[in-house]
Amino acid sequence: MSTKWRPATQLVHGGTIRSQYGETSEAIYLTQGFVYETAEAAEARFKGESEGYIYARYGSPTNDMFEKRMCLLEGAEEARAMASGMAAVAAAILCQVKAGDHIVAARALFGSCRWVVETLAPKYGVECTLVDGRDIANWEKAIRKNTKVFFLESPTNPTLEVIDIAGVAKLANQIGAKVVVDNVFATPLFQKPLELGAHVVVYSATKHIDGQGRCLGGVVLSDKQWIDENLQDYFRHTGPAMSPFNAWTLLKGIETLPLRVRQQTENAARIADLLAGHPKIAKVIYPGRADHPQADIIAKQMSGGSTLVCLELKGGKAAAFALQNALDVVKISNNLGDAKSLITHPGTTTHKNLGDEARAELGISAGTLRLSAGIEDTDDLIEDFARALDKVPG
Ligand SMILES: Cc1ncc(COP(=O)(O)O)c(C=O)c1O
């Protein structure tokens, strides 16, 4: 097993633990607990004097393989696999703050992530300031003496805004705060937050890592010291561990991640180009296009475009609904990163709870749609959009 392999090789072989049977595919260890040869062996395991598993809430072999493979891909020392992306986000933030601490977060966050910092954390005495994360000066202005965590996603859901991760990390390092990056939209292939100076990376593995709509999952990655000092006890004692069955499903998903993401990105780029010139479309935001408002930051920190496209129809909600209803290959669904192309209307689904004012602040209008491009034949998708746009009134 080499740590020098390139990502596509790591994702097929990295972290594999073979049993005595020498199975080709990774085994699923569906067990809650483990037996010990002797009482002394149990004692030593619990004291941390001998290596081995204790209880599946703490860790187990299939989850271990998934965590090790993710570490190899991300360039992280340690990872913890969690039951969902939200379990991972909540753990990454809550495990490292206490009453009296302060969080600065970008206001453009997935709705549930925003709820964790804006509503949940203050209930426990942790205040949060939300900023327009695109301007680094806003992060600096929000810093207080008790600021402990900076939290952001980039590109953002759904308007694909981009935040200068290295810039935020530089500020955080000046005050000893930690930067947590939700890297779901970029994927671990196109953006490496740890290399850019972030301290903790989180994923909803439900998205590109599974990529085939089968199970929920999440993962938190960082250095060993941060995990030992912050996450380890939280993880063991609050119980967000991933099911070993899901860890196995995700291990299988991860093997084909580069193939899927490459095809999805090609499809997204072609669709973005088609939409950008269409008379019924007011705006297209796509991180792979030169007209993205932050193309300079994208060039600095991302090595690929995106599997997602944000589009705004001139005809508002009626037009956005008409387009969704007229699409055939593309399905209406609020998930993303899937092999199937999926489209959603954030204003009435994923970002419904934000309210009109917060949505307007984030640039989510009644005509905004978020497309997650799948791996279908590009021409079928292009024809689907062209045909559906013809049916949109106006
Ligand atoms: C950016 C982002 N972070 C976190 C999550 C939460 O992930 P999960 O649904 O796996 O809990 C999602 C989507 O649901 C997301 O889009």
Automatic annotation (TrEMBL):
Cofactor: pyridoxal 5'-phosphate
Highest taxon listed in the record's lineage: Bacteria
Acetylation recorded as keyword: no
InterPro entries to which the protein is assigned, alphabetical: Cys/Met-Metab_PyrdxlP-dep_enz, O-succ-hSer_sulfhydrylase, PyrdxlP-dep_Trfase, PyrdxlP-dep_Trfase_major, PyrdxlP-dep_Trfase_small
Pfam families noted in UniProt: Cys_Met_Meta_PP
N6-(pyridoxal phosphate)lysine PTM sites in chain numbering: K207
Pathway(s) of this molecule: Amino-acid biosynthesis; L-methionine biosynthesis via de novo pathway; L-homocysteine from O-succinyl-L-homoserine: step 1/1
Keyword flag Transferase: yes
Reactions catalysed according to its record: O-succinyl-L-homoserine + hydrogen sulfide = L-homocysteine + succinate
Keywords from the UniProt entry: Amino-acid biosynthesis, Methionine biosynthesis, Pyridoxal phosphate, Transferase
Enzyme Commission no: 2.5.1.-
NCBIfam families for this protein: O_suc_HS_sulf (TIGR01325), PRK07504.1 (NF005696)
Protein purpose: Catalyzes the formation of L-homocysteine from O-succinyl-L-homoserine (OSHS) and hydrogen sulfide.
Protein family according to the UniProt entry: Belongs to the trans-sulfuration enzymes family. MetZ subfamily.
Assembly: Homotetramer.
HAMAP family: MetZ
Protein name, UniProt field: O-succinylhomoserine sulfhydrylase
Species this protein is from: Pseudorhizobium endolithicum
